[in-house]
Amino acid sequence: MQIQEAELLISAPGKEQWPDTPYPEIVLAGRSNVGKSSLINALCGRKKLAYVGNTPGKTRLLNFFLLNRKLVFVDVPGYGYANISKQQLLRFGEMMEDYFHERKQKKALLLIVDGRHKPTDDDVTMLEFARYFELPIIIAATKMDKVKASQRQKQLKLISETLALSEEDHLIPCSSANKEGMDRLWEVILHYAQI
Ligand code: GDP
Predict the structure, then answer these.
(1) Quick check: pTM over 0.90?
(2) Which residue, 3, 82, 87, 146, has most beta carbons within 10 Å?
(3) If the chain, 195 residues long, is cut into consecutive pieces of 10 residues, what is the mean pLDDT of each piece?
(4) CATH architecture of the domain covering 12-193
(5) Centroid of ligand 1 to alpha carbon of 30 (angstroms)
(6) Would you kindly state where each structural domain of the chain is located, as residue ranges?
(7) Atom from ligand 1 closest to the CA of residue 52
(8) Atom number, ligand 1, closest to the C-alpha of residue 32
């Protein structure tokens, strides 16, 4: 999809601040530094819609981006910081549970993983969360420009097996650097957003 208009509606610390919008929402999550901001920017054809290099201090907010006045990306703070406090972890869990449990507009989880690595336990937990709430699952294996052609299939298999992906889930190899996979990602996003 060509993005003509992209606007940050709000960075919401809690459900009281969620925007009162009717648009379908795609939730984008991934561990910190996985390349989520870069992917959001690549999908939207923007250089700095989402801030690349988010700091741990910004980890408590859900960012709601309205695209072309018809679709919302919900940018979940990157997880997996080693030195996060128990209280912060609890807060993150509550925030996600509130969202998955209460937000009617949600249409799919787009989980971003690093194409070079085995997904983490935190990735598996996030996926289980989405499965529990019966949210369709799209996996973007990003940074594929860094994976040798000879290693590609092996890496994708590792990701698929670690996340126990099923037939209905989508695993899409991509790269924000060379834009691989962007059309396929949009195709699947728009399918679930039903727009
Ligand atoms: P975030 O913390 O998940 O939002 O990750 P960022 O988007 O800030 O990216 C983290 C680092 O990975 C940055 O140095 C990016 O330039 C780099 N990066 C992100 N996506 C890609 C990609 O597709 N290919 C390559 N080679 N580097 C990437």
Answers:
(1) yes
(2) 3
(3) 92 95 98 94 88 60 95 94 83 94 98 98 95 97 98 98 97 98 98 96
(4) 3-Layer(aba) Sandwich (3.40)
(5) 12
(6) 12-193
(7) 8
(8) 2
